[in-house]
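Q: Convert this sequence to structure tokens.
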Amino acid sequence: MDFMPFYIVMIAIAPMRAEPDQRSEQVTQARLGEIVEFIEEKEGWFKVKLETDGYVGYISPAMVVGFGKEDIENWRSSEKFIFGERSAEILEAPYKSADLIRTAHMGVKLPLISRKGSWVELKLPDSKSGWTHSRQFQMQEAGSRAGIVETAQLFLGVPYLWGGRSTAGFDCSGFIQTVFELNGIALPRDTGQQIGVGKEMGKDYAKAQKGDLVFFSNSEGRVNHVGIYLGEGRFIHSSGIVQVNGLNSEDPLHKESYLERYMHVRSMEEFLN
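A:
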């Protein structure tokens, strides 16, 4: 079997697993239209590296389409439509009764082919095209703290999912990564990597600004959770669902368990203004 150097995800969400087994832990997800680099084939699975953040895992070959170097470059450089709704339909034709051929989650980027009134025609990885009536995601001014907060709040109520990085479900660091990505800022995938970004400010959250990151530890003192600071001691994070909690004990949204685990704030000033 000939393997291509690159593959593009052709379904809404493709799980990337720790081992080449359907029962193996989901370590992250690749979304529709994202590029993965082929590493090797093992037991009928592809070991790949996600171009977005360099994460490595096993993906089912049925969920991706192979591309050569020239074609992948065309995909990278094409003008993209960015989906701005939690979940959107991609249809066979530009009318609402047309057959559904794909779904896409907020932040998915697909090459733009044409526009027809309020409809847009998009290129799909498997040589097909489809139409959507979804709104385009409107990115705030690059590096805007207000943009980070506004984007984070769009995801309130999205369920927690281990390894998740889509509006079908986020883990805590996948939520952070996606919010910043939608504001033009690339962050690493895991909490243990994200704690190395920005500048530590200590535990006094009164000095923090909106959009800074707050970190929490487990019982062994190891970082295992992260949220986005909203001001006045509040933060938004994915725990059970994407929700807002407070560090101030007088705040009605306060939960003592978070205050007990609270480690410190990291300033994101190098990225935000």
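Residues 6-75 form a domain with the SH3 type barrels. fold (CATH 2.30.30.40).
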